[in-house]
Write a structure and sequence with these properties.
heterodimer, A: about 375 residues, alpha+beta, 2 domains, 9-stranded mixed β-sheet, two-stranded antiparallel ribbon, 15 helices, about 15% strand, B: about 425 residues, 10-stranded mixed β-sheet, two-stranded antiparallel sheet, elongated
């Protein structure tokens, strides 16, 4: 630590070059932060305690095929299931087709299974008591300027009402909040009463799109899943039950192999970065050979010279990397605030920082290694005489 | 101080002007500019001076290979990523666009936007098929196909996990409606039987799609009897008889959509108006070109925005890498450049020579990046979820236009990265430069 001043002044010996290099490092880590936030959103790094104990039951054939509501009581009776609810996809859009919604009709006890979506008891009561009542996530409500008490017309794309109208008008009776930043994406949905959907839809009533179960002990989830699927085995509506995480991951993987995509871009970026910073460090050490020789002359050991140069390159990467990730954090926040939570980006979290810092240190050591070795091995006499 | 700031601003302006120029001109404009530059270098006195200075500069590149490769690799990275992502958008978009044309129309329930969301009762499908604007075959039957879309899950060959595949039940008119569909193995399905034919790309992507395979859909066993090639989005689908699929999935006689061949593209407006004014049902008609264009828009735009954003950020990194390299190159040649100036060389040739050197390095980077993207990703097969919630298999397309666009980016980055060092070299006081160690 006492050498920090020495390392710092060595780093900024050539201001322009160092600043330019740092800007390149910032660009690389900014990209890393942004892409990692996209990858997290798809690969489902969002594991919550509530999510781990939830399971989803869909039709085995395909999740767009509905299931009979008669399964509710039978799933409830499976040992290990502590609660069960169901929901049905509604979709639709608000005002213009480009404003596609995540809208679902949900059974009465839906919010019991989603404790991370926070509604006041009054709002929850109003939701149950209002036939055409709906609750929206805070981010969604902010996006369209909805307030509690508003009447919200939604254009259905799948389910017209009896009588053929595509317009469903809901009374917004509550706005729910999600405080966990990793689960913020859940704040973008609209929920309304399944009973209302059941009565008003021209078709599609009387069915559940999927069931959600809470298991008492997540460790026994596999056995519970098998027991649930056994209920409808060999019937004409066979089911598939899996953990919520597994369900989301397999859904996201159908969009694209995001991990591979992000991985290849970042591979390309960091390869370039290593070359670039490596070149800067090599130049920096080449210029300073006489200075390093003087350090050795006044008593610095080979190892201290080695660590000085390594510290310098790690500091270079850490400065740029930290600024880049910080900018990424602000940028993701800004993008999410502007485009709404359904944009597949999660806030830059601890995981990303951890991985980022690891990368900074590793790349710093890697690009510092050769120049540092050169500094360590130099012979004082040769270096001072400029040979 | 104020003069320096003024210079920097002016330089920035020149750089911005060049970037804008590169962004706007078509490729032949670039070729013309290159030809003019070559003529200037070869024919005028100042031009020849510039070229000889450039030659000296270029001859030292092998000695500073590490620094030069920062420019080349940095720019190759930008171009490679840009071309690859745009090739993905291009491939997806053209797959969908080729599915549509202006002389067929697709009819969905009003407001439903995608086939999967739509539903039309039997009466409606009959009325739509018999509109006067619908073309008829030699026996007087309308060329129309009321179709059913259901989603099935099949394991993917690549990952072994289940993914959605679109199962399309087609009517008798489907073959006349889509003459581009050819059976490439086996035979057509027999109406009334639980037989399926699989699209070429679905066959590549999913298990259980070989001829003779049997699997369960809708709780009933089906047999694959043929494979077809349509050269468009339908290649990602499985086809069977609409009536049989409706029975298996308990859809009765309702259908998701009706696709018809029109008398002529001009008949579309009358066809749409006739359906819109029919009080018996609510239906929207679009030409298949419009329909598939809409389906591709969202994803294509998302990929292009992503690609541009990533490329811009990478380009910032690459520009500063190039700046470092070229400043170092100029610094290493300080005495040489000062000597040239003392001998009577003007500033112009020095500026041009540094710029040409950077642009050549950038061009090399652009070519390498484009070549790598082309080698790795041209015809690379990928799949994503389409609007019917099922897999659309498509190929990346690295087109000449995309490669040319990549080279433009490379040149723009090279120009910005070279301009500032070039101007520094030219503005350096000769006396200081000669004294430099």
């Amino acid at each position: 630590m006492k050498y920090l001043h020495l390392v710092w002044s060595a780093l900024f010996r050539r201001k322009t070059r160092t600043v330019f290099t740092i800007i390149s490092v910032i660009a690389a880590f900014l990209l890393f932060g942004l892409l990692d936030s996209v990858r997290d959103a798809f690969v489902g790094a969002a594991h919550s305690a509530a999510g781990a104990s939830r399971m989803i039951t869909t039709s085995k054939e395909s999740f767009v095929i509905s299931l009979p509501t008669s399964l509710l009581m039978r799933i409830q009776a499976v040992p290990g299931v502590s609660a069960v609810t169901y929901a049905n996809w509604f979709g639709g859009y608000y005002q213009q087709p480009k404003n596609q919604l995540i809208a679902e009709s949900v059974a009465n006890n839906f919010f019991d299974l989603y404790p991370e979506m926070k509604l006041s008891p009054g709002e929850l009561h109003a939701f149950h008591a209002t036939r055409a009542g709906a609750v929206a996530g805070a981010s969604l409500a902010r996006r369209f300027g909805w307030k509690v008490g508003d009447k919200i017309p939604i254009q259905a794309t799948i389910f017209p009402q009896k009588g053929g109208s595509n317009t469903w008008t809901f009374d917004l009776v509550g706005i729910y909040h999600v405080t966990d930043p990793q689960l913020k994406g859940e704040e973008g949905a609209l929920f309304f009463n399944w009973d209302y959907f059941d009565q008003a839809a021209a078709f599609g009533g009387g069915t559940a799109g999927w069931y959600i179960e809470r298991v008492a002990n997540p460790k026994l989830a596999d056995g519970v899943a098998r027991a649930i699927d056994a209920i409808s085995a060999n019937s004409d509506h066979e089911t598939k039950t899996e953990s919520e995480d597994a369900f989301q991951t397999s859904f996201a993987s159908q969009f694209a192999n995001i991990g591979l995509l992000v991985g290849s871009i970042m591979g390309c970026v960091f390869f370039t970065l290593i070359l670039l910073t490596g070149n800067t460090m090599a130049q920096a050490v080449r210029e300073r050979i006489p200075e390093l020789a003087i350090l050795k002359t006044i008593g610095f050991s080979n190892r201290s010279v080695l660590s000085l140069v390594l510290a310098e390159s790690v500091l270079l990467l850490a400065l740029g990397g930290a600024i880049g990730l910080a900018i990424a954090g602000v940028a993701v926040g800004g993008i999410r605030a502007k485009l709404g939570p359904q944009i597949p980006m999660l806030p830059v979290g601890k995981q990303t920082w951890l991985l980022g810092v690891t990368l900074m240190v590793l790349i710093g050591l890697l690009v510092g290694a050769l120049p540092a070795r050169r500094g360590m091995r130099l012979r004082i006499v040769d270096a001072l005489s400029g040979r | 101080m104020i003069r320096n700031i003024g210079w920097s601003l002016l330089t920035l302006l020149v750089a911005a002007a060049f970037v804008a120029f590169v962004a706007i001109v078509p490729w032949w404009g670039g070729a013309l500019a290159a030809a003019l530059l070559a003529a200037w270098l070869a024919l005028t006195r100042v031009g020849r001076q510039a070229w000889s200075v450039t030659e000296v500069g270029m001859s030292t590149v092998p000695q500073r290979l590490g620094a030069a490769s920062v420019v080349v690799v940095g720019i190759a990275g930008v171009v490679g990523v840009l071309v690859a992502l745009f090739a993905m958008a291009e491939g997806f978009q053209s797959t969908l666009l080729e599915t549509g044309n202006t002389d067929t129309a697709i009819v969905l329930r009003g407001g439903s936007q995608a086939e999967l969301n739509s539903g039309l009762a039997h009466d409606a499908t009959v009325i739509i098929s018999n509109e006067p604007q619908v073309k008829r075959d030699s026996e007087g039957r309308p060329i129309a196909s009321p179709e059913l879309v259901v989603i099935a899950s099949l394991p993917k060959k690549s990952s072994g996990t289940d993914a959605n595949v679109e199962l399309r039940g087609v009517g008798e008119g489907a073959w006349a409606l889509r003459p581009n569909v050819h059976i490439i193995a086996g035979r057509r399905f027999t109406p009334g039987l639980r037989e399926l034919i699989v699209g070429k790309r679905a066959a590549m992507e999913f298990e259980h799609t070989a001829l003779g395979s049997r699997f369960n859909l809708g709780g009933q066993p089906w047999t694959v009897v043929g494979e077809f090639d349509s050269g468009d989005e339908h290649d990602s689908e499985l086809w069977g008889d609409a009536d049989v699929i409706a029975a298996a999935y308990r859809r009765g006689d309702s259908r998701n959509s009706v696709t018809v061949r029109l008398q002529s593209p001009k008949a579309f407006d009358a066809f749409k108006a006739a359906l819109a004014s029919d009080p018996r049902f609510k239906a929207d008609a679009s030409t298949t070109r419009d329909y598939y264009n809409r389906q591709s828009e969202l994803l294509t735009r998302a990929i292009r925005v992503l690609g541009t954003a990533v490329a811009i950020i990478m380009a910032i990194g690459a520009i500063f890498g190039a700046l470092n390299t070229m400043y170092a190159a100029v610094a290493a040649r300080t005495r040489e450049i000062a000597t040239l100036r003392a001998m009577g060389f003007r500033g112009g040739p020095v500026v041009v020579s540094v710029l040409i050197e950077t642009l050549l390095l950038a061009l090399a980077g652009g070519v390498i990046g484009g070549a790598i993207a082309w080698a790795l990703f041209d015809h690379y097969t990928a799949s994503t979820l389409g609007s019917n919630f099922s897999q659309v298999v498509f190929e990346f397309r690295v087109t000449p236009a995309l490669l040319a666009n990549g080279l433009k980016w490379a040149l723009a980055i090279g120009f910005v990265g070279g301009l500032f060092p070039a101007l520094r070299a030219a503005r350096m006081p000769v006396t200081d430069g000669l004294r430099e160690q």
